[in-house]
Amino acid sequence: MKMQWILISALVFALITAVFAVVNVEPVQVNFMFTTTSTPLILVILTSTLLGGLIVGLFGMVRQYKLQRKVKQLEKQLHDAQLPPAVSTKVSDIEQNEPSV
């Protein structure tokens, strides 16, 4: 259910951003430290939104990867903790455990 709300929220945000961008179509000057260009504001808004979404998505993927690695590590520790102690099969260990005659 949570994922459905996230998807709905993302679609509403995309719709609001698209409407806002379409309303603002006049050209603006954008300063790229080394050059200045005149670009329609709609492109600036949509590009900024897209780059922001990609950055947030990348951080989310990195976080998910780290969490999955941690889960696998903890599952391995749990599995190792649940194994019974190893039974010794060495001849020297068996001879030491036998009672002396």
Keywords:
two-stranded antiparallel sheet; single chain; 101 residues; 70% helix
What does this structure look like?
By secondary structure, the protein is mainly alpha-helical. The protein has 3 helices and 2 strands. A two-stranded antiparallel ribbon has the order 1-2. A hairpin with a 2-residue loop joins strand 1 and strand 2 (35-40). The model has no long low-confidence stretch (mean pLDDT 85).
Mean pLDDT: 85
Number of helices: 3
> What are the segments in which pLDDT stays under 50 over at least 5 consecutive residues?
none
Name the structural class: mainly alpha
Radius of gyration: 30 Å
User: Could you give the order of strands across the largest sheet?
Assistant: 1-2
Distance separating the two termini: 71 Å
Question: Can I get a quick summary?
Answer:
The protein has helices at about 1-25, 40-80, 90-95, and strands spanning about 25-30, 35-40. It has about 100 residues and is mainly α. Strands 1-2 form a two-stranded antiparallel ribbon.
